[in-house]
Amino acid sequence: MRKLSGCTAYWRGLAGVSYDEIRDMLDQDIPVILAFYRHNKAELDFYTLSDNTLKVSSLAYAHYFVVTGIYENPNVPDKHFLEVSSAGKKEYICWEEYIYGKGINAFSSYIKISIK
Fold first, then answer.
1. Residue 18 lies in a domain
2. Residue 17 pLDDT > 80, yes or no?
3. How many domains does the chain have?
4. Cα–Cα distance between 62 and 93 in angstroms, integer?
5. In a domain, 98, yes or no
6. Residue 14 belongs to some domain of the structure
């Protein structure tokens, strides 16, 4: 794990954030923390992986979670999944649902960490 001295960290809105930016942060051992805030009764699906199949396991209305990895299924090329730690459990969220399709608003955000 990279030592994080000499870094900056701040909350950043989701406007302009990309899946590739999340991947790059993980590749550099930079922690990724996301926040989901309920807007217009939106909810975010959490998935569990069993027998190479993702199934909805729970819902969140407002939640913080840590991204621990990326899961890409060649059988579902149009969706990208982030492996997250939520309440100590390994689960997955669909990036497209998080960023585009679940009522994301200005209060959903992530911590942007930069290494100097």
1. no
2. no
3. 1
4. 14
5. yes
6. no
Q: Find out whether 109 and 11 touch, Cβ atoms under 8 Å.
A: yes
The strand pair at 44-50 and 81-86 is best described as unpaired
CB 34 within 8 A of CB 94: no
Q: What is the pLDDT of residue 11?
A: 73
Question: Which structure tokens are listed for 19?
Answer: 């899946």
Give residue 80's domain range: 33-115
For residue 86, what pLDDT is reported?
Answer: 81
In a domain, 93, yes or no: yes
CATH code (residue 107): 2.30.30
Helix, strand, coil content of the chain in percent (nearest 5)? 15, 50, 35
Burial of 44 (0-12, 13-18, 19+ CB in 10 A): buried
